[in-house]
Amino acid sequence: MNPIDVKAFGKVAVLLGGRSAEREVSLMSGNGVLTALKSKGVDAHAFDPAERDLGDLKREAFARVFIALHGRFGEDGTVQGALELMGIPYTGSGVMASSVAMDKLMTKRIWLAEGLPTPAWRQVHSAAETRAAFAALGSPMIVKPVREGSTIGLTKVMTLEQCDAAYALASGQDPMVMCEQFIAGDEVTCPVLGTGADARALPLIRIVAPDGNYDYQHKYFTDDTQYLVPCGLPEGEEAAIQSIVLKAFGALDCRGWARADVMIDRNSRKPWLLEINTSPGMTGHSLVPMSARATGLSYEDLCLQVLATASLDNASA
């Protein structure tokens, strides 16, 4: 790989914080990225869209943006659209891919149309529909907001009596709620770096959380969760999952980088795609840096590589 000319990046904004339910995590990600880019000589500056007008990016002559926002108003195509209008290249997927990937229902519909494996699901609009979904999908069942991340608003439902509270929790985060068949087995995640034919899957990380409960607290604030890389899966199994993840990435027209979450059925060993994150976490507990490190790529060089992929949907416009 050719050395990266950091001066060619110009003035760089690291978007962090924002207005989503994942603001706290985004601040941790963004500050990590900011420190890393500065250590490499990039003219990088923190920029919190919750506290500043996005138009300042244009007025203050920022040449490029590293998006370290998570969730809505940052990972869902809205910020990407604003940056397109201003003509400022940004990291991660474009407007359409970001919007679709944030919507778990649309993601599943596209993956299913492309013949990719994803667990059975139902969209629900009430507690009664959640109970009906439980009867159809069986126990355990996952109830979650359609357009939220970091397991916020998610419940693993074991009994019919839990359905009402699970629906209330999820709908409090997003009026669109889905129920999903639970897949028991190994939980893995697979980062992707690059775009199009240059996209490559990084090593899988197998996640072993206390009691199988990989929730918000265990993701970001405790050291109880084990992250295994190398993942310990048979070589052929890991390669097959990487291939599926690259197809899932391409099916949504993602670019730059992302991270897909996959469950492997304990009995059949079949992998099932859960979702894809187009602005992955970059905190001290985050998984993309962990996987990259297993290939010899440091956190700082990972940030540089991602920044180098910043682009626009309509670069020639």
Describe the structure.
34% of the residues lie in helices and 21% in strands. It contains eleven helices and 13 strands. The strands form three sheets. Strands 8, 9, 10, 11, 12 and 13 form a six-stranded antiparallel β-sheet that branches. β12 and β13 (271-277) form a beta hairpin. The two termini are 28 Å apart.
Tell me the major beta sheet.
Answer: 6 strands, antiparallel
Contiguous low-pLDDT stretches (5 residues minimum) are: none
How far apart are the termini? 28 Å
What is the tally of helical segments?
A: 11
Number of strands: 13
- The computed structural class is alpha+beta
SS strand fraction: 15-25%
**What is the element string, with H for helices and E for strands?**
EHEHEHHHEHEEHEEEEHEHEEHH
Kindly report the average pLDDT value.
Answer: 93
List the defining traits of the structure above.
single chain, 317 residues, alpha+beta, six-stranded antiparallel sheet, four-stranded antiparallel sheet, 21% strand, globular
Give a short overview.
Helices cover 34% and strands 21% of the residues.
SSE layout:
Layout: E1 11-15, H1 23-39, E2 43-47, H2 56-59, E3 64-67, H3 78-86, H4 95-102, H5 104-113, E4 121-124, H6 127-137, E5 141-145, E6 155-157, H7 163-171, E7 177-181, E8 185-193, E9 200-201, E10 205-208, H8 216-220, E11 226-228, H9 235-251, E12 257-265, E13 271-277, H10 287-294, H11 299-308
Parallel strand pairs: 1-2, 1-3
Antiparallel strand pairs: 4-7, 5-6, 5-7, 8-9, 8-10, 8-12, 10-11, 12-13
